[in-house]
Specification:
Layout (H helix, E strand, L loop, with lengths): L2 H5 L9 H4 L7 H16 L2 E5 L1 E4 L28 H13 L4 E4 L9 H14 L4 E4 L2 H11 L3 H11 L3 E2 L9 H8 L5 H13 L3 E8 L5 H20 L6 E9 L15 H14 L5 E2 L3 H4 L1 H6 L7 E4 L20 H10 L3 E5 L5 E4 L1
Parallel strand pairs: 1-9, 1-10, 2-3, 3-4, 5-6, 6-7, 7-8
Antiparallel strand pairs: 10-11
Helix pairs in contact: 3-11, 4-5, 6-7, 6-9, 9-10, 10-11
The structure holds ligand V47.
């Protein structure tokens, strides 16, 4: 039996990342056809997007990730730290512009206290209770735990109490420990990143999971990353009382400018599409695969919808992390632009909320 057939049997522990990395040896049409069949079975011609706003309270960071161009202590000479009032002003504007989700993640600013974060979330929820609050990556949760000594479980419980609705998927990077220690030494460990999400899911909450690819990692590291996520998700589903889990897997294509990784060889379009198709094939228990237009570019993100992806992310309004590294995403996208691209590609555009309830069809 060939490796693709075996991969589709989902005999959880039978194939190693090395064996599964042979999936990349199939051509894109073979992988794409299988991945497209899987996504079509679940979603037909639907492509999902949401109306969201990213807010990044500060770019002053205690951690040093080689791939990051956003952090002020690196090649970006403009440090900033927003106050709660400034963030609230942005949140109100975002809401007036149609955002139904606020995605709030920050650099690890040592001047923000434990209380600051939770006051921020409470104030936002008080002012805009109808807006979905997606906030704090597992890397931030780990950082807040380290500065406060509260323990990550308490941080997560306090997030629920303060009104955080879901967690974004950032900070996952690549779980392989050797790659991780080269690209982001000192940041949350892979083990802890996974423990944090598992505990959050146990609180009945949803989250996403990213993977930063296209830098020094090898194919088998990407597969290993996906398998670790698949395992956590299936562990989660064993506990009957839980309603939480991973909503979406988001492969983030590494952007090369203004950072310290100094990568010369970038993945081809084929390698990117194969990665997305393989994610759909392997991650049978994570419902949504997001082709994040901010890193892939709009064209590639739309093409990826025929290679297993079923989501584009959203309007964003202001994107500061990937655009600092060269992505053309700073100003976000209008809802009309997203809808027109999705329709032009022959799909049905579905505006969703943050946990994938369908709000409107275009
Ligand atoms: O974890 C940093 C990445 C992430 C670069 O959960 C870079 O819905 C590419 O996690 N090139 C933060 N990527 C963004 C993130 C995210 C984005 C969209 C949706 C969701 C979601 C989550 O940005 C970090 C890091 O992996 N990043 N630098 C770079 N040079």
């Amino acid at each position: 039996m060939d490796i693709l057939q075996k991969a589709l049997e989902y005999n959880e522990s039978s194939l190693s990342p090395q064996e599964l990395s042979k999936l990349y040896e199939y051509d894109i049409f073979t992988l794409g056809k299988v991945a497209n069949k899987l996504r079509t079975k679940r979603y037909g011609k639907k492509v999902f997007f949401n109306n969201n706003r990213h807010i990044n309270p500060s770019n002053i960071c205690a951690d040093v990730c080689k791939f990051c161009a956003f952090s002020a202590s690196r090649k970006n000479p403009n440090p900033y730290a927003m106050s709660i009032d400034e963030i609230l002003t942005q949140a109100h504007k975002a809401y007036e512009n149609g955002a139904k989700e606020l995605h709030i993640v920050s650099a690890h600013n040592p001047n923000y206290t434990y209380e600051w974060y939770f006051e921020l979330f409470r104030e936002i929820k008080k002012a805009l209770p109808q807006v979905h609050l997606k906030a704090l990556t597992a890397a931030e949760v780990d950082y807040i735990d380290r500065i406060s000594n509260k323990g990550y479980k308490k941080v997560l419980e306090d997030m629920v109490e303060a009104g955080v609705d879901s967690m974004p998927g950032g900070g996952a990077e690549i779980f392989d420990e050797s790659v991780r220690s080269y690209i982001c030494k000192g940041k949350v460990s892979s083990k802890r990143w996974l423990e944090i999400h598992a505990y959050w899911h146990g609180l009945g909450k949803m989250s996403n999971a990213t993977m930063l690819f296209g830098h020094i990692e090898k194919r088998e590291h990407r597969i290993d990353h996906m398998l670790r996520l698949r395992e956590i998700q299936s562990e989660d589903s064993k506990v009957a009382s839980k309603n939480g889990g991973f909503n979406a897997f988001i492969p983030l294509l590494y952007q090369k400018e203004n950072n310290f990784l100094n990568i010369k060889d970038f993945p081809s379009g084929q390698e990117i599409l194969k990665t997305i198709a393989i994610a759909r094939i392997l991650l049978h228990n994570i419902p949504h695969i997001k082709a994040y237009w901010a890193t892939l570019g709009l064209n590639m993100a739309i093409v990826a919808q025929e290679f297993g992806a079923n989501d584009m992310d959203g309007t964003i309004q202001l994107e500061s992390i990937q655009s600092a590294a060269g992505a053309k995403s700073k100003g976000g996208l209008s809802k009309d632009e997203l809808i027109s691209q999705i329709k032009d590609a022959g799909f049905v555009a579905i505006e969703r909320d943050s946990i994938y309830n369908e709000l409107a069809e275009y």
